[in-house]
Design brief:
Length: about 270
Amino acid sequence: MNWTHVLLAGYAGAVISAVVALMRKKGWIGRISAIVLTLAAIALWNVMDAYYLKNQTNQNIDQQLDAAMASMPTWQVLKEQEPEKVEQIRAQAALMIKAGKREQQVIDSIQPQILAIQKNRLAYAPDEQVVAVMQVNVAQIEAVQQVSDDACYRFLFPEVKGGINPTKLIPQTVMSQRIKADVAMMRAAWGPDKHIVTSEERQHAQLSARKVIQMMVPTYGQNLEILNDPRKGAEKEKITCNLYKDLWRNVLALPQNEAAGIIRMAMTAE
């Protein structure tokens, strides 16, 4: 089973979660629409792995899981910080595999649990680590768009046109940066020096987010509706990808504390 897909799927979905949260703050979509869009996006990197299907009957499943998890730095941090939760996830995955569940079913079951932990950590991480995580997310989108606008659109919205396997399109250097950023963020968010969000920070983040969206109106106009309904971008793949890149580039161009505030607000919006 390719656990890289599971771990790296978290923020791929969280990127869309953040955009959806901003749209909710703007009042463009309601809570139900936001939930539907977010749940669809969380499945972004759920790819059926032929290795999983071929080898699960040839190796001891518990040993296979332990070996895969041991090779992932993010899992090691989770194991250090929340050993009981990690063991629960591991046991659940092993049980489902032994029961003959498909990899997609296993991922769909455990991925939301991992995403919840990562998003929780992001809320408490220092500004530098929060911004670094989003910078890598933008780099991932840019890397896929270099292949084609269609691949970029499918990367962002697999539920509309069918997804891709981004691990085959994104350079290993970017993948490594992603894992490094995740590990640094999760370690920095744990302990007595973790960041505490204040009401003033939330209010300032809301104002900054509105300004970012307003800045994009002259360039994108009605195409901003794509953020509400991705299907409207199905025949506008280049515009859609540029829209999402520009959204986060504009956020990242702000002073570090402002950018981090918007990202925290978006990622933790309920």
